[in-house]
Design a protein that fits this description.
By secondary structure, the chain is mainly alpha-helical. The chain has helices spanning 2-16, 26-49, 54-77. The longest helix is centred in the middle third of the chain and has 24 residues, at 26-49.
């Protein structure tokens, strides 16, 4: 979901540019829904797999956190 959110942001920037808009568009709302929608999935994963295989689960959670940060980077970089 984080990579999809990144694709939405980059696609919006590629088509419309990085200009700041007066109102949030559909791309911003889709990004917000994708970012919020993955929280229950990540929480379920953490609850299920951290007790069973902590080292592997922490690696997956770190990868997920990195994907979230990469998805947020264009928003902060272009000051959208």
């Amino acid at each position: 979901m984080s990579l999809t959110a990144l694709a939405v942001v980059l696609g919006h920037i590629a088509i419309y540019g990085a200009a700041r808009e007066a109102d949030e568009g559909a791309a911003a709302h889709i990004w917000q829904l994708l970012m919020a929608g993955q929280l229950p999935v990540v929480a379920f994963f953490a609850i299920k797999w951290l007790p069973r295989a902590p080292k592997a689960a922490l690696g997956v959670l770190a990868l997920q956190a990195g994907a979230v940060l990469v998805s947020m980077a264009p928003v902060f970089y272009f000051n959208l």
